[in-house]
Design a protein that fits this description.
The structure holds 2 protein chains of 2 kinds. Chain A is mostly helical. Helix content of chain A is 74%, strand content 1%. Chain A contains 14 helices and 2 strands. The longest helix of chain A has 36 residues. Chain B is globular, with a radius of gyration of 24 Å. The chains are: A mainly alpha, B mainly alpha. Chains A and B meet through helix 1, helix 2, helix 4, helix 5 and helix 6 of A and helix 1, helix 2, helix 4, helix 5 and helix 6 of B.
Chain lengths: 302, 278
């Protein structure tokens, strides 16, 4: 750049240079995501329509046979139904457990807030595998923590069998994904207008009414964001069902892993992964759409 | 809140419904916090158990599993692999992500929103799908699962963290400083290096801590892209959890928890805990 011949009267010109910057600093990242995500996804979708023999694509072998085989297999539908149920149950459980934490966060003082955040973020940054292992220890067998406590307190006579059931998977999924529900809820609840609650109280509403009819509707964007995120993550998780569900427990995501890594049937893996991603996308759109409808309805009834 | 409103609020009595609601809400919040934190405490606790198997409560407190860990060549090697990989991913993420965030915040090019959505898309993508896609991509173009593939795949997974955190910080900067720098004759690059970058350095450090821990702990992508010869710790642990029933896994886990707390400490000082979430 040449010597500065600018004065402050040229501020608009300066501003254009500083702000009117081009796209170029983002180009390496854009290229990177294109090559490492967009292209691999294209390959993944393509693999579902090809014949693959031990990791080698047979050229010119376009076929819809894999899709046909998988979509007509009742076992696939069973797996999708189980993944869906687990995703929905996890999301609802996270909402029921997470909402009170996020709401509490907006009521307490700064020190308690910080503690609450640490309690939410520390598990988030701790390996999900470690947390899943912890549940293996807590729920596991007769010597597991839960059964030891329940037996000693005399609440149950025989050890509960939780590990290797849907319940263990549900508990694990909920714990691992709870922070993803709480953080968007905190963001939505912390920015709400408190005067609306005052107004509600002054108009004669009880605290419960104010909570249900003012606070909860105001936090809809957070509920939408958290719900979409937790559903997408729990619907596609394969580590937790594998470790807590036991050897024979399977979901679509577990099946994708088994087909690609263990059985090496890549075409089936590719089809299932594509269907999993596609259905996840549609369901998340559905959640967003429903939330938008609810928010529109909220505006309408004001 | 005006004093009058404050008084009006205090005057309001609690109805039975209110009390029940408060009890339910507090109870659920307490349960949620126990569910969140208890697993971490349990893991740390049993890592000090001196017995061969896992049981409650731990008996014979000892450090034998930490000693066993120290002598476990396979795990130590895996930890070294993870350390290298996580450092490389962090470096790549910062080098790619910070300029990209700058372009997205300061740029006026058309399609900024689309470019931004595209760059954070990996975060919306299940790790499983990224892993499978990169595995197939590598096979199609005849790249083997390797150290490099692992770094490349984890970088795409972690890039959104850097971009989001850096964007949030950049959006909060006063452009007047950059304008002054330009007005005083600094070029674009010089302004970025000497004026913009120092202001976002803290946020970048925080983002680096988050990316490091995400890359170090990742198993969903790494299971598909790591080579069998150089397995990262997370993958090694994934196999170990399935057949080892001694507190050894707990000792490894305790280290990972310690690492997570270090990352939390760094991030809380640099970007604030509120911003860590997605």
């Amino acid at each position: 750049m040449s010597a500065p011949a600018v004065t402050w009267t040229d501020a608009a010109w300066v501003r254009r240079i500083v702000r009117g910057r081009g796209i170029w600093p983002a180009v390496p990242a854009l290229l990177y995501v294109f090559v490492m995500l967009a292209v691999p996804l294209a390959v993944l979708f393509a693999f579902g329509f090809l014949t693959i023999d031990r990791g080698r694509v047979i050229p010119g072998s376009f076929t819809v046979a894999h899709y046909q085989r998988i979509l007509t297999d009742s076992l696939s539908w069973l797996l999708f139904w189980r993944s869906f149920r687990l995703g929905v149950a996890t999301t609802l459980l996270c909402l029921v457990l997470g909402y009170p934490v996020a709401y509490l966060y907006t009521l307490v003082g700064p020190a308690a807030r910080k503690l609450l955040l640490i309690a939410v973020i520390s598990p988030l940054l701790t390996s999900a595998l470690v947390r899943t292992y912890a549940w293996l220890v807590i729920l596991g067998g007769r010597r597991g923590l839960l059964n030891t406590v329940l037996l000693r307190l005399g609440i149950v006579d025989t050890p509960l069998r939780i590990l290797n059931t849907d319940w263990a998977v549900l508990i694990g999924l909920t714990q691992v994904h709870l922070p993803f529900m709480i953080l968007p809820l905190i963001a939505a609840l912390a920015s709400r207008d408190r005067f609306l609650e005052e107004a509600s109280a002054n108009l004669g509403a009880s605290r419960l009414e104010t909570f249900l009819r003012v606070v909860v509707p105001l936090s809809l964007p957070g509920i939408a964001a958290g719900t979409a995120l937790v559903f997408a993550l729990s619907y596609t998780n394969f580590i937790i069902p594998q470790l807590l569900g036991g050897g024979t427990y399977s979901t679509v995501a577990v099946k994708v892993y088994e087909q690609t890594i263990v059985i090496l049937d890549w075409a089936t893996g590719a089809v299932l992964a594509a269907l999993l991603l596609g259905s996840c996308f549609v369901l998340v759109l559905l959640i967003t759409w429903t939330a938008n409808r609810a928010m529109a309805w909220r505006e309408g009834t004001r | 809140m005006t004093p009058a409103l404050e008084r009006a609020r205090r005057r309001r009595a609690w109805s039975p419904g209110d009390a029940a609601g408060a009890v339910v809400l507090t109870g659920l919040a307490a349960l949620a916090l126990v569910v969140l934190v208890a697993p971490l405490l349990v893991v740390v606790l049993i890592s000090f158990d001196g017995r061969e198997y896992i049981g409650f409560p731990p008996e014979r407190l000892s450090l034998r599993w930490y000693q066993a860990l120290w002598g476990h060549a396979q795990l130590i090697d895996a930890a070294k692999v993870s350390l290298r990989v996580a450092l490389d991913v962090t470096l790549a993420g910062v080098v790619l992500g910070v300029p990209a965030a700058y372009a997205l915040v300061r740029g006026t090019f058309p399609g900024r929103t689309v470019a931004g959505a595209f760059l954070v898309a990996p975060q919306m993508m299940p790790g499983l799908v990224i892993g499978v896609a990169v595995l197939f991509f590598g096979a199609y173009f005849a790249f083997r699962a390797s150290h490099l593939m692992l770094i490349l795949s984890l970088t795409v997974f972690c890039l959104p963290f850097v971009i989001r955190i850096a964007m949030a910080r950049l959006a909060g900067l006063d452009p007047a400083l950059e304008e002054a720098s330009a007005a005083l004759g600094a070029g674009r690059f010089e302004t970025f290096l000497r004026v913009t970058l120092p202001q976002v350095a803290g946020a970048v450090l925080g983002a680096a801590a988050v990316v490091f821990i995400e890359a170090f702990d990742n198993v969903t992508v790494a299971l598909f892209t790591a080579s069998a010869r150089a397995r990262p710790l997370a993958v090694e642990l994934y196999y170990l959890v399935q057949y080892d029933s001694s507190p050894l896994v707990a000792a490894v886990s305790a280290f990972e928890i310690l690492l997570a707390f270090l990352a939390v400490a760094v991030a809380s000082r640099t970007i604030g805990l509120e911003r860590i979430g997605r």
